[in-house]
Amino acid sequence: MASFTAWLLRMFLTYIRRSRLVFGSAENMHNNMRELYLRPQNFNPPKNLEPGITIDRIDYDVWPLYRVSSAGNSVKKRPAMMYIHGGAFYREINPQHWKFVAQAVRDTGLDAIVPIYPLLPRPGATAAEVIEGFMDICGRLEQPIVSIVGDSAGGMYTLATMQQLLEQHPELARRVLCIVLISPVLDLGLDHPEVVRRGKNDPWLGLDGLRQLLPLLGAGLSAHDPIISPLFGDIERLPPVMLLSGTYDMLVADAQRLSAKFQGKGTEICTPGSFKNDKFIFIEQPEMVHVYPLLPHPEGAEARETIIHFLKQHTRCVSIDDYH
């Protein structure tokens, strides 16, 4: 049973914030996207994020880029994770993302590289262009990217970027020791019957609005192209993967499909329930909403600790000398 705090947050999303109003309507989605295009959100990290945390601006070409560290400015080349924020591909990084990044940096000993990537409908915001940018960052940075973590839209980019690194830059892919997917978008077609069924009761997300993303993000790609739907990409060569999703999130259906794929059952079957093997950990949390690991309730705090343990398990023995 969900904690009282989690229940209260779900009621807030449903009846006060009314998040579903935006995602549940094509018109509302376009209006919200236009509003944020005309009045862009602030992406800067909060001041005094956490004691002992240092944030440096290390811009990459035209993208703002941040390095978050717990060791001040003296260590420039230690291994790092890349954090790719969510926001339906058109909303900026927010304080909850920054708080999680700070916690991960503090508790893992890794730096975090946080790209402020182009958002729809801006130029350069198609999935193919953004993924190319993430791969370029992995190649240009002096410090190796040893893990990639992303939530929601960022979860899609995390898995798709890893798949494309394996295809195009295997030498960079070998550096990545694990990836974490938090409530990821895995199939941008959003047309699986179980997604449709769950979409009717999701307190946050809605199908009619989110389906407007495919033509903008894909720019002519098929809905099954792994660039925008990494569920259909290669999983055999991936590093260890952790996936977390809640049962009140319509996207859990596609998470179940990815779990089924790791179990050798194909992509059409939804296999509910948590699952673990040597390469894949799926945590399916009952009664939790979209991106629950980032939310301020006991289940979110427990999920964050689980993610950090996973990152430490797979990166704790790594040093910069391993990449020279």
Describe the structure.
The protein is of the alpha/beta class. The protein has one domain: 3-Layer(aba) Sandwich (Rossmann fold). Helix 4 crosses helix 12 and helix 5 packs across helix 6. This is Alpha/beta hydrolase fold-3 domain-containing protein. It comes from Penicillium nalgiovense. GO terms for molecular function: hydrolase activity. One of its GO terms (biological process) is monocarboxylic acid biosynthetic process.
Descriptors:
alpha/beta; Rossmann fold; hydrolase; 324 residues; nine-stranded mixed beta sheet; hydrolase activity; Alpha/beta hydrolase fold-3 domain-containing protein; AB_hydrolase_3
What order do the helices and strands come in, and which of them pair?
Layout: H1 4-16, H2 20-23, H3 26-38, E1 54-57, E2 65-69, E3 80-84, H4 95-108, E4 111-115, H5 127-140, E5 145-151, H6 153-168, H7 170-173, E6 178-182, H8 193-199, H9 207-210, H10 213-218, E7 241-246, H11 252-262, E8 275-276, E9 280-285, H12 298-315
Helix pairs in contact: 4-12, 5-6
* SSE pattern: HHHEEEHEHEHHEHHHEHEEH
CATH topological fold name: Rossmann fold
Major pleated sheet: 9 strands, mixed
Ends apart, CA distance between termini: 49 Å
For the record, the CATH architecture stands as 3-Layer(aba) Sandwich
